[in-house]
Amino acid sequence: MTLRDPAPPPGRIRRTKPAPFRRPSITIGGATQLRQWRTVAVRDLTAGDILPGVGRIDRIDETVVTGGDHAIAWTITVHGGAGNSARYHGTDEVWAFTARAAP
């Protein structure tokens, strides 16, 4: 290339992101809200969220053991597909793919 050669044509600008780089979205109350990986409290998880090691959450069970007038233990068991489950203390936080807003 010499100084007299024309510059190569500019690259094409994409107006949308290619499919592998798009994030899935969900509709809540008519508004589209993107799901993102966030740190959330276990008590705020809902069915449809995704947890590493569990997968997409199908069901959440909450157990509170009381002694007298106060709680002794609070556990939350998260159940996913293929029989995967995980047990957490009620105040734990987890990394989850969810649409819930960060605090």
CATH topology: SH3 type barrels
Report Rg. 23 Å
Distance between the termini: 56 Å
Shape: rod-shaped
Largest sheet: 4 strands, antiparallel
Q: For the largest sheet, list the strands in their spatial order.
A: 4-5-6-7
Name the structural class: mainly beta
Share of residues in strands:
over 45%
Overall pLDDT score? 81
CATH architecture level-2 label: Roll
Q: Enumerate the spans where pLDDT stays under 50 for 5 or more consecutive residues.
A: none
CATH class: Mainly Beta
Q: Tell me roughly what share of residues is in helical segments.
A: under 10%
Throw out a few tags for this protein:
103 residues; mainly beta; four-stranded antiparallel sheet; SH3 type barrels
Question: How would you sum up this structure, described in words?
Answer:
- The protein is mainly beta.
- It has strands spanning 25-28, 31-34, 36-41, 50-51, 55-67, 70-80, 85-89, 93-98.
- The chain has a single domain (23-98), classed as SH3 type barrels, CATH 2.30.30.
- The chain has no helices and 8 strands.
- β6 (70-80) and β7 form a beta hairpin.
- The N and C termini lie far apart (56 Å).
- The model has no long low-confidence stretch (mean pLDDT 81).
